[in-house]
Structures are given as structure tokens and as C-alpha cells.
């Protein structure tokens, strides 16, 4: 379920901002560092879904900042109530949601800030922080039980 | 189209009015401005023209000069023809955003009415603000009177908006001496002026929804150097385009401008290099000295302060024996900024003239023909002796004991 197939294009997540892979000279850089967001004509692109948009190589959508993260949030669909609180609060638009249904996390742009976990209202929480290297199955198997109300 | 404005063949305008008429004739779309003496009337008049239907534009009232230039950057990036005016402290407050405008290659035209920088508070003219902006990546043109303030403002739009240039342009005029002195000005007819400037053709405008763009991207060490190199190249490559615009302007107006204006320099033995209204004073002094005492005096004036016309300055001065460079700005613990640039140009000539630096006219202090003559005569003495006989840097027109620094090493 968390294999999301919402990738914009094949570049997505391949190019780190720090890679410095291209070797252009000063005469090849754009004048005024004004960068096009999309390839070709972008009329009406706001109405298209992310995976249908022609993001340019200069768009931050095609670059990953995953390496900035130390811990990652893991999403548990069995507990989630689709309240969209995490989607509203995520400062990097890294919560993937479609038709008001939570689908998971965009790990290419999530920086592990933990805001989504903080605002999650379910019991137990539907989003929890795990070590970057914890596999999904292992994380889900460690999910806590529902806490009983005191008194 | 806007209302018709009645213009006579010859008008009596001050420098501020002249500059604002250029904004009207260029039909500037947006002016974002905060008033500061002595440049206030430029944007005030623009507001009047908008209110009275002479311009289909927008006057944006802001809370500071920083916001004024920020508003101009936004409006220019959105795809409008944009201009504003400022002076002194207001210019200093804009300084951060001046670099944003030039870095984003936005052809904003800024009318700077030069005024001293506090403290002490002073509303009168000197060139402290002009030199403050010299590394900001803007093209800087200097008008010596009201007619030139009008002419150069029109040329500024044409230069900055050229697609090979795409850089912001400042037009300087001297506070009060130019900005508030009414003189005869011969304006172009509205249609002639607008046709000369042309319709604004934006590049990468943000309001083009078929091609959204990012302005102000972060580059760090990966690209910053390359972008600054490219910006410098654009500035240096603007020189022939400035010449071309000046030549086209001569065709429509009959008035010829050069990046370096020389006066009686063909056979000159001594010269004054200056900027602003001082140039006209020095020209009168040079003419009178030639008639009265036969001193072969000439004047070199810099019309285009940035990009600095290094080679033209060198060519104009290389056969002169002695040169005085006049800085109307506090040197701040060094030789004057203008002196350093002119000296650098002269250092590469085979026959290095003797160069001295005069600090004068700070905070609006008068610069008289008599003083210019005294400077010329002192240059003549250096030329005859073959070395600099006085201090290399002197304060001219200062009350109290004379002030001078650095003696020539000789023998």
C-alpha cells in the first residue's frame, strides 16, 4: 500500500541538490538565475496531477533532500482516520494524499521534522518516527497498542 | 491611451520635473516610491500624471525605500516597465535590494538625486550615495543639468530593456543644483519620445502562466561565481549598446552624448576629471584660463560611471601632464573613490600623468569658477616642475586650517 507510484518522472529522487553533477561554465548559466519550473508549455498545469506534470530539471520537485533526514516518519494505514491533519501541517508538502485519503509519505522531500507525528490525533498515532534504516515491515510490527483511558 | 499633455518646444523645468516628464513619456507601468528630499517631486509628479490620466500606470505607496525597491523588483519581474527615484539615506536603505534587482537582471530605472549621507544630517548635494552604489551591478549614468536628466532618463529605459543588456539603470543628477534649478529644457514630442523608448518587451515575466519561472533561486558555491561572472560580462558588454542608444538619441533630438565627455582636450596640458554639475563650472574655468593666461586646460567628464569607461578615460588623458581628480564624497580613510578609478586607468599608460585628488563640495558646499581656476593653476605648477609640488590629496573649499595628505616621494 505504501508503494505509491506518484512519481512525477524518472528523475525524481535521483538528483541530490548537493551533487554538482553538471559541469557547465559561466556562459551557459541562465541570465539572472531565472529558472523555468516546467518543460514546454505549462498552460493549465495547476489542474494536472503531480505525476502528469512536466517538471523541469530545475524544479525542486525533481531533486531529493532525503539525505538531510536522520529519522523518518512511518505511516500505518490501519490506524489512520484520514483527518488530513498531517497534510495540513507538513511544512514541505511531503504527505501524499488523494481524494482526502492518506496514502503515505514523500520520502524524497521529507526532512524528518516530526510535525506530522505531533499533530496526529489517533490512538495509537498513525504516524511514528523510526530510524532511517528500519524496514517498513519491522516498523509496522513494532506499532504500539491502543492506550486505555485512565480513570 | 492616456490623456494628451501640452508641451511647448521649450519648457522651463527643474531636474526633478524633467525626470518625471521622461517617466510620463515612457508610460511607466509601476512606480513604487517613498519620498525623500531632494528627489520627492519626481515620484510626486508621476502620481499626479496617473491621477490626472496622463499615464495608464500604478503608483504604489510603500513604508520605506527598502520596500520601494522591493516593490519595483516584484513589478519588474511580473513584466512591467518600472521606475522610481531616491536620494541619500533612502538610497542607502535600498542598497540590499539594488543587488537583487541587478542579480535578477531586471531593467528598472532609478533616478538618483545625489545628496550627502548623514551624519550630520544634510539635505544638500554631494556624491556619497553615487559611490555607495558603484558595485551594485547597475548601469550608472550621470546628468550634469536638467536637460540631460530628461534625456538620459529616456535613454536609460532603452539601454536597460535591451534584451542583450537586461540590467537596471541609475540616472544621477546633483541634489538641488540640478534637481531644483529651473532651466530651459527642450523636450521631445510625446510620440517621438515613446517611439524612441519603444514598447516594453519583458523576458521571463512571472505573469506568463504558460511558462512559470523561479526568481531568486539559491545557488551557493556551486553557481554563485558563474552568475556573478555572467552579470559582469553583461555589464561590460552593455558599453557598445549604450553608445548605440546615444547615437539613436542624437538622431531624434540632435543632442549627442558620450560615455566620456571631453572638453578642450585635443591639446590640453592639464586637466580636471569630474562628475555632475561641477563639470560645467570646470569647463567655464578652463575656457577663461585659456583666454586669460594661456594655460592649456581641459575637462574630462564621466557620463557613464558604470560600466566604468576605463579605456576612454585612459585615451582622453594619456597625453596630459597633470590631472586633478575631483571627488565630491568623503574619502573615508583612503584616496577618493573616483581618484582610485581614474588613477588605475592612467597607471596603464606609457606616459603616466601626475594625478592629484581634490575632495570638494561636501554636503552642498559651493564649487566656484575661481576654485576650479586655482586647481588648474596648481596642476600647471606640477606640470612645469615635473612632480607633484603639493599634497597628493587636498580638501578644497574647507573652512579653517587647510587639510592635505601624502607628499610625493622624489629625489
Automatic annotation (TrEMBL), chain A:
InterPro entries from the UniProt entry: 4Fe4S_Fe-S-bd, 4Fe4S_Fe_S_CS, PorD_KorD
All copies of domain 4Fe-4S ferredoxin-type, residue ranges: 71-100, 101-130
Superkingdom of the organism of origin: Bacteria
Cofactor(s) named in the record: [4Fe-4S] cluster
Keyword vocabulary terms for this entry: 4Fe-4S, Iron, Iron-sulfur, Metal-binding, Repeat
Official protein name in the record: 4Fe-4S binding protein
Organism listed in the record: Sulfurovum zhangzhouensis
UniProtKB/TrEMBL annotation, chain B:
Keyword Transmembrane helix: no
Coiled coil ranges: none
Record-annotated Pyruvate:ferredoxin oxidoreductase core domain positions: 268-371
Domain Pyruvate flavodoxin/ferredoxin oxidoreductase pyrimidine binding: residue ranges: 22-245
Pfam families associated with the record: PFOR_II, POR_N
Keyword line: Oxidoreductase
NCBIfam families listed in its UniProt record: PRK09622.1
Protein name: 2-oxoacid:ferredoxin oxidoreductase subunit alpha
Protein source organism: Sulfurovum zhangzhouensis
Lineage per the UniProt record: Bacteria, Pseudomonadati, Campylobacterota, Epsilonproteobacteria, Campylobacterales
Amino acid at each position: 500500500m505504501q508503494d505509491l507510484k506518484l512519481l512525477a518522472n524518472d528523475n525524481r529522487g535521483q538528483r541530490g541538490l548537493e551533487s554538482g553533477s553538471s559541469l557547465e561554465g559561466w556562459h551557459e548559466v541562465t541570465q539572472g538565475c531565472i529558472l523555468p519550473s516546467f518543460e514546454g508549455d505549462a498552460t493549465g498545469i495547476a489542474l494536472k496531477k503531480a505525476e502528469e506534470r512536466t517538471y523541469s530539471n530545475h524544479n525542486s520537485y525533481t531533486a531529493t533532500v532525503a539525505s538531510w533526514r536522520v529519522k523518518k516518519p512511518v505511516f500505518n494505514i490501519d490506524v489512520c482516520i484520514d483527518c488530513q491533519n498531517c497534510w495540513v501541517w507538513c511544512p514541505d508538502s511531503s504527505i501524499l494524499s488523494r481524494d482526502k485519503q492518506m496514502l503515505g509519505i514523500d520520502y524524497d522531500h521529507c526532512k524528518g521534522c516530526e510535525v506530522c507525528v505531533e499533530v496526529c490525533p489517533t490512538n495509537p498515532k498513525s504516524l511514528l518516527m523510526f530510524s532511517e534504516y528500519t524496514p517498513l515491515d519491522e516498523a509496522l510490527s513494532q506499532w504500539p497498542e491502543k492506550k486505555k483511558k485512565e480513570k | 491611451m492616456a490623456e494628451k499633455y501640452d508641451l511647448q518646444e521649450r519648457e522651463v523645468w527643474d531636474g526633478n520635473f524633467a525626470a518625471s516628464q521622461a517617466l510620463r513619456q515612457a508610460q511607466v507601468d509601476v512606480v513604487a516610491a517613498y519620498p525623500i528630499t531632494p528627489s520627492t517631486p519626481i515620484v510626486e509628479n508621476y502620481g499626479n500624471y496617473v491621477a490626472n490620466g496622463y499615464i495608464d500606470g500604478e503608483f504604489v505607496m510603500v513604508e520605506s525605500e527598502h520596500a520601494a525597491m522591493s516593490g519595483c523588483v516584484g513589478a519588474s519581474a511580473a513584466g512591467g516597465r518600472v521606475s522610481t527615484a531616491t536620494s541619500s539615506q533612502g538610497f542607502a536603505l535600498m542598497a540590499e535590494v539594488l543587488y537583487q534587482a541587478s542579480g535578477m537582471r531586471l531593467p528598472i530605472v532609478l533616478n538618483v538625486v545625489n545628496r550627502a549621507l548623514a551624519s550630520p544630517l544634510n539635505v544638500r548635494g554631494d556624491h556619497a550615495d553615487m559611490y555607495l552604489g558603484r558595485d551594485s551591478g547597475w548601469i550608472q549614468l550621470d546628468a550634469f543639468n536638467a536637460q540631460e536628466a530628461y534625456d538620459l532618463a529616456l535613454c536609460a529605459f532603452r539601454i536597460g530593456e535591451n534584451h542583450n543588456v537586461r540590467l537596471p539603470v541609475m540616472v544621477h543628477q546633483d541634489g538641488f543644483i540640478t534637481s531644483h534649478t529651473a532651466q530651459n529644457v527642450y523636450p521631445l514630442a510625446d510620440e517621438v519620445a515613446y517611439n524612441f523608448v519603444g514598447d516594453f518587451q519583458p523576458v521571463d515575466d512571472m505573469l506568463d502562466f504558460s511558462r512559470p519561472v523561479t526568481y531568486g533561486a539559491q545557488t551557493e558555491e556551486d553557481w554563485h561565481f558563474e552568475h556573478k561572472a555572467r552579470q559582469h560580462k553583461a555589464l561590460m558588454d552593455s558599453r557598445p549598446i549604450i553608445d548605440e542608444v546615444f547615437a539613436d538619441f542624437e538622431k531624434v533630438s540632435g543632442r549627442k552624448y558620450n560615455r566620456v565627455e571631453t572638453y578642450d582636450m585635443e591639446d590640453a596640458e592639464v586637466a580636471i576629471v569630474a562628475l555632475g554639475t561641477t563639470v560645467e563650472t570646470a569647463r567655464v574655468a578652463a575656457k577663461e584660463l585659456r583666454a586669460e593666461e594661456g594655460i592649456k586646460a581641459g575637462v574630462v567628464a564621466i557620463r557613464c560611471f558604470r560600466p566604468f569607461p576605463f579605456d576612454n578615460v585612459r585615451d582622453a588623458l594619456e597625453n596630459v601632464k597633470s590631472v586633478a581628480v575631483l571627488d565630491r564624497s568623503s574619502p573615508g580613510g583612503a584616496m577618493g573613490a573616483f581618484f582610485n578609478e581614474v588613477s588605475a586607468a592612467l597607471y596603464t599608460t606609457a606616459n603616466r600623468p601626475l594625478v592629484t585628488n581634490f575632495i570638494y563640495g561636501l554636503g552642498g558646499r559651493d564649487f566656484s569658477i575661481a576654485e576650479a581656476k586655482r586647481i588648474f593653476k596648481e596642476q600647471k605648477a606640477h606640470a612645469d616642475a615635473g612632480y607633484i609640488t603639493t599634497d597628493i590629496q587636498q580638501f578644497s573649499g574647507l573652512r579653517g586650517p587647510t587639510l592635505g595628505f601624502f607628499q610625493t616621494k622624489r629625489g
